[in-house]
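Subgroup meeting minutes
Present: P.N., E.W., G.H.
Scribe: E.W.

1. P.N. recapped why we're keeping a running log of single-chain structure predictions: easier to compare across weeks, and new members can see raw inputs and outputs side by side.
2. G.H. added today's entry (408 aa).
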Amino acid sequence: MSAAGPVFIHIGLPKTATTYVQAVLFDARRELAEQGLLYPGPRNHHYLSVVDLQGQKFAGNPVAQSVGVADALFTQIREWDGCALYSHELLAGLRPRRIAKMLPQFGDRDVHVVMTWRDISEVLPATWQERAKNQTVESWRTYVEQTRRGPEGGHDFWRLQNVPGIVDRWLKFVPAERFHVVTLPKRADKAAVLLERFCSVLGVEVPNPKEGTAVRNPSLGATEVALLHRINAVTRSRYTWDEYHRIVKGGLVQGFLSKRPGQVRVELDESNRPWVDAATRRAIEHVESAGCDVVGSLTDLGPTAFSSNPDARPDEVSTENLLQAAVEVLVDVALARDQGRRSLEDRLDKQRLKLATHGASRAGGVPVIEPAGGSTLERIVREMAQSEMTRRWVRRAADAYRTLRDRR
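Output recorded in log:
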């Protein structure tokens, strides 16, 4: 038994309310540290460290900022005497040689693996959406046909969702009693219950979520994903990965597509129930035979998310509905851009008044402020920059302007 506390490695699975759990726990990291649990940071270093372990690429795209992040994160853990949490759903896909390379970084500490698990009939459409948010163009029909072939069919879905394979890989390195399977229940407060179960494994009190910080990964309806696929087809040749992530995923999807009212949830057709049931039974039987520690109930995993509603089929969204959605999103984007511009102009006008007042007070005079009128933001910044007396304040305002401009 190690003198230092154990390391809990949360490997996902993806689309099991991991974003919610990670957000709540990271917001409460000071409170958790007082209880002896380290959640090292910054938070995005958990993602970047996995990318670093896998060779600085995500979805085939180089992620240069990941270089060396794994070593930095693991150093924080080694230097902490208590328990530690390392959490990202991409860890589910680590190959044995990567796991073997990573675990010695934690010294002689005991390692526990935590796997959060959800009904696969809900995970399948959620994963398809997430792939679309990462610039993939793949029809719903093709996706379902390929995933129903199982792990042997080679679809990338199973790399992070093949429970028997994932369990077997990690059990080569940790005993079954230290492999904790935490199930996501089927109830309105399922994320909160998952958090409670997760914290019971960590041995800490359940923190209270802070308002506005524990945001779930937004989902999209059938029409919205179909529209996103068409956007992806255009942007793949025009945007770099970083540009896409910032403009489309971080801006258009989270700011506009996910907020459209009246969205129709994407669900599997009833005809898929037999193979989904069979895949679920095989996975449950494998976990039971392996002797893993189950927190919750394996009955939570029974597939229930099926529909015969034709509107839930993204491939059959009409051109008229797509056009209507595109126009509405375009109007929303234009309005938000105008509001952002006006807000920025107001801020710069206030800063301009402050700068002029500051300069006049130092010169002993009374400032005469001319209204900005219809001048562009660039001209406002140039006018401000002409004042030698207030150069330091101008630099701050110009930096703030550029930051806000880049966010638009």
